[in-house]
Amino acid sequence: MKIISKIFLGLFTIFLIVSLSGYFLFIYANGNITAKVISSEANLSNLKINSLSIVFFLVSSFILIITTGLIVSLSIMKPLEKIKTAVSERNEEVYLSQNNEFAGLANEINKRIKYTEKEYKEILDNANDLIQSVDKDCNFIYVNKKWKEIMGYSEEDIKSLSLLNILKSDQKTHCMDLFKKVCAGEHLENVNTIFISKNKKEIFVEGNISPKITNGKFISTIGIFRDVTEKKQVEKEIEKLNKLMIGREVKMSELKKEIKELKK
Amino acid sequence: MKIISKIFLGLFTIFLIVSLSGYFLFIYANGNITAKVISSEANLSNLKINSLSIVFFLVSSFILIITTGLIVSLSIMKPLEKIKTAVSERNEEVYLSQNNEFAGLANEINKRIKYTEKEYKEILDNANDLIQSVDKDCNFIYVNKKWKEIMGYSEEDIKSLSLLNILKSDQKTHCMDLFKKVCAGEHLENVNTIFISKNKKEIFVEGNISPKITNGKFISTIGIFRDVTEKKQVEKEIEKLNKLMIGREVKMSELKKEIKELKK
Predict the structure, then answer these.
(1) Same domain, B12 and B78
(2) Are residues A99 and A158 part of one domain?
(3) Tens place of pLDDT for every residue, chain B, 264 residues?
(4) Which of A43, A98, A112 would best serve as a mutation to test chain B binding (most B beta carbons within 10 A)?
(5) Between chain A's N and C termini, which has fewer beta carbons within 10 Å?
(6) Chain B: nearest CA to A110, how far in angstroms?
(7) Does some domain include residue A134?
(8) In this structure, is residue B236 part of a structural domain?
(9) Which residues of A are less than 8 Å from B66 in CB distance?
(10) Do A49 and B30 make contact, defined as CB atoms within 8 angstroms?
């Protein structure tokens, strides 16, 4: 049941009880007086004033009830509705330009959402991946601890950093094509590219990029990358070792041949 | 200003306006009647009924106002306070056993929190780490997609799985000691252990474990691990290659020595 209907039902019930008791009270008082002034001219006026007071009482009670309803709806239902709309529209923040219990509730809701975000951001900060969130203009909205650690940029640097600043020159065109795809709503897996850290080191990364979409509107891209620089180096090392090994094998069979020749 | 005070102030203002206008109306009506029945016995009774009606009007209006206050506080301030408390205590869910606008708001707040959680869980699912959340009884509360992929367990399996089930036998004592530390509030870095996947494969992991604490109470551990099985294998391979290489070197110098001898 709606609160407004509940309040009005409650008020009308009291109104009914008060009116009925008032009506019987006046009937009783009127009866007494009527008996006393039965022969007097005042009888008619007396009855007139009684009905006048009843009408006045009814009208004023009615005004009270209607005004109560208006006050309640203005001071309660409106901010309630405003909070509900802001919450259901998944706004980043619920804002009320008031200073009452509803503003207090809005504030608590904001804190609650921030708390959940903080909880998860802590998890993301503990992750071993480089996580970055970039808006449609290529500005960084969020990067995690590992990202800052590997890329060498501070929170302050990131404010003025663009996605283009961290891409290796030969990767820019390719990456911007991918970026546009994600902005259009695509989720990309197995993206391979090369970042350049603050101190110009090449960081080989592979990972995936997803769009963050709220109320059907693109908000940002979320990229989760693994630093594969070390892996690439190890792969190179194994390749080198294998080549060396082959060289040694060739050399050895040559030596063995030579021994064979010499032994003849 | 508090809503309740605002409502009461509004109601008392109307009450004052209505009372004053009622008083002057009765004075006016009474004056007319008094003129007509000036010599009659009814005059006194007439005045009596007027004051009776004024008192009755005042009392009934007062009852209306007090009852309005009670209805408003019961049907509005109580659920509002309940929602606020649940939100500020960071409960998982805001629950109201009602079916009105407040229940609607509570529902929207729940959906909003779930939405933020879903957003972040999507990021966690895209991560390349194995992420697991375990409660104080070693039951799994959450694992991400990568965890399920590498460990081979389904969402259904996980419901009845304990942390002990996924640890290699020789790791259990050590890991349980670490687990107790995290339950006591410690954050652990560089944890190295071996998981056993559903199909009995050894998964070498390294990572960190943090406690999730809400309102000063331990809720769960959050472990973020990197699968280093491949890395360990590669390391072994390099070691093997290096050993082979040394063997080859020794063999070669022997062969060279032999050649030297033969050439003499």
Answers:
(1) yes
(2) no
(3) 566 666 667 767 766 776 677 667 666 665 555 444 444 444 545 555 556 666 766 677 777 767 776 777 677 778 888 899 999 988 888 888 877 788 888 999 999 999 999 989 989 988 889 999 999 999 999 999 999 999 999 999 999 999 999 999 999 999 999 999 999 999 998 999 999 999 999 999 999 999 998 888 899 999 999 999 988 888 888 899 889 888 888 988 888 898 888 887
(4) A112
(5) C
(6) 9
(7) yes
(8) no
(9) none
(10) yes
Contacts of A113 in chain B (CB under 8 A): 112-113, 116
Whether A140 and A185 share a structural domain? yes
In the sheet with B130-135, reading across from the earlier edge strand, the strands are B140-143, B130-135, B217-227, B202-214, B188-196
Distances (CA, A) of A34 to B29, B40, B41: 18, 13, 11
Domain end, chosen from B99, B126, B153, is at B126
Residue A240 located in a structural domain: no
Query: A46 and A8 in one domain?
Result: yes
Does A126 sit within 8 Å of B124, measured CB to CB? Answer: no
C-alpha distance from residue A179 to each of A182, A203, A204, A219, A227 (Å): 5, 19, 18, 13, 19
| Residue B157 C-alpha, separation from nearest chain A C-alpha, in angstroms | 24
Q: Closest to A7 (Cβ–Cβ): which among B36, B56, B75? A: B75
Q: Are residues A61 and A115 in the same domain?
A: no
Q: How many domains does chain B have?
A: 3
Nearest chain A residue to B56 by CA distance is A22
Residue A18 lies in a domain: yes
Whether B72 sits inside 8 A of A72 (CB atoms) is yes
User: Between B71, B112, B127, which is nearest A129 by CB?
Assistant: B127
Note down the domain range covering B115: 91-126
B192 lies in the same domain as B206: yes
Is the predicted ipTM greater than 0.85, yes or no? no
Strands of the A188-196 sheet, one edge to the other: A140-143, A130-135, A217-227, A202-214, A188-196
